Amino acid sequence: MNDNRHGDGAILALFEDLALKAGQAIMKVYDAGFVTDTKADSSPVTEADRAAEKIILAGLRDRLEGIVCVAEEEISAGKVPGDLGSEFILIDPLDGTKEFIGRKSDFTVNIALVREGKPVIGVVFAPARGDIYSGRPGHASHGRVSSAFAIEKTSAMSVREAASPPKVVASRSHRTPETDVFIGKFPGAETVSVGSSLKFCLLASGEADLYPRFGRTMEWDTAAGDAVLRAAGGTTRLVDGGAFVYGKRKQADDVDFANPWFVAIGDAALLSSIGAD
Ligand SMILES: Nc1ncnc2c1ncn2[C@@H]1O[C@H](COP(=O)(O)O)[C@@H](OP(=O)(O)O)[C@H]1O
Ligand SMILES: [Mg+2]
């Protein structure tokens, strides 16, 4: 990867192709019915998570040989990569597993390239909705996906000027009291509960303004949506306004890819709400 054989456009196209294939496998499981298992951290997992991750990793390792892939289910199984390098890939094959199990439509496939700590290329595919969101430096787009899992009707997207009061998106399944305190700073703000990384995409497409996450997430939960948001002109910051970075672990065998709390923002004018500019 570091020899620049693969341009950003080619990497994005590969991510889209693998996300579509993974989404197709997920919908097969969704339609057929499935058994839910519980992981060591007591979070749920299904055959769909595992099948999707296998497809994505096989494709990435075949086409982008040598790049480190950090994938949710492999990490759960104790397969932890050593040195991440200056570029690596984060994969959450099925984000919003609780929504998937609850037969809602807000679950996503997520693939992101991190370069020097920043998520620069990302794809988020919501297979039950037929929406795919893509971002690379300087360009973000939304595509509608056909029943044959092909992208059609692509359009460029960007964040909007913030509404007043702002429209807020928050986790459907893991909302915390601290999140509610933050939202309370915006009297009259409409809050929409959505599962998965789709919250970043709603900011990126100009449908909402703020996504406060005062609660646990992992780097693979956020990297792809964050890449789409940044490509659309938005930003993600620590709750004190500091930089939100990826590949934060301190040592090579560290299994903890947990994120600190953050606020994702569409319009830069809202940076002042977290004391940043
Ligand atoms: N108590 C909990 N149980 C399960 N997942 C949790 C959790 N608290 C936070 N999460 C994280 O929140 C993610 C879902 O985000 P959201 O709440 O925005 O829908 C989950 O991703 P997975 O669904 O990939 O496991 C998981 O990483
Ligand atoms: Mg997740």
- Termini separation comes to 34 Å
Q: Helical region count?
A: 7
CATH topology of the largest domain: the name is Fructose-1,6-Bisphosphatase, Chain A, domain 1
DSSP strand count: 14
Shape field = globular
Q: Can you give the helix content as a percent range? A: 25-40%
Based on secondary structure, the structural category is: alpha+beta
**Roughly what is the average pLDDT, rounded to an integer?**
94
Strand residue content: 25-35%
Bound molecules: adenosine-3'-5'-diphosphate, magnesium ion
Instruction: Characterize the main sheet.
Output: 7 strands, mixed
Query: How do the SSEs run, as a string of H and E?
Result: HEEHEHEHEEEEEEHEHEHEE
How many separate domains make up the residues?
2
Overall CATH class of the largest domain:
Alpha Beta
CATH superfamily of the largest domain: Fructose-1,6-Bisphosphatase, subunit A, domain 1
Q: Uncertain spans, ≥5 residues at pLDDT below 50?
A: none
Biggest β-sheet: strands ordered side by side in the sheet? 3-4-5-6-7-8-9
Radius of gyration: 17 Å
- At CATH's second level, what is the architecture of the largest domain? 2-Layer Sandwich
Overall description:
The chain has two domains: 8-156, Fructose-1,6-Bisphosphatase, subunit A, domain 1 (Fructose-1,6-Bisphosphatase, Chain A, domain 1, 2-Layer Sandwich), CATH 3.30.540.10; 168-274, D-Maltodextrin-Binding Protein, domain 2. Helix content is 29%, strand content 27%. The protein contains seven helices and 14 strands. The protein has helices at 8-32, 47-63, 72-76, 97-101, 177-183, 198-204, 219-231; strands at 36-38, 44-46, 68-71, 87-95, 108-115, 118-126, 131-136, 139-145, 151-156, 168-171, 191-194, 210-213, 235-238, 262-265. Strands 3-4-5-6-7-8-9 form a seven-stranded mixed beta sheet, with helices on both faces. A three-stranded antiparallel beta sheet has the order 12-14-13, sandwiched between helices. A two-stranded antiparallel ribbon has the order 1-2. A hairpin with a 4-residue loop joins β6 and β7 (131-136). α1 (8-32) runs antiparallel to α2 (47-63). The longest helix has 25 residues, at 8-32. The model has no long low-confidence stretch (mean pLDDT 94). The structure holds adenosine-3'-5'-diphosphate and magnesium ion (MG). One of its GO terms (molecular function) is 3'(2'),5'-bisphosphate nucleotidase activity. It is found in: Cell inner membrane. Belongs to the inositol monophosphatase superfamily. CysQ family. Mg(2+) 1 binds at residues 72, 92, 94.
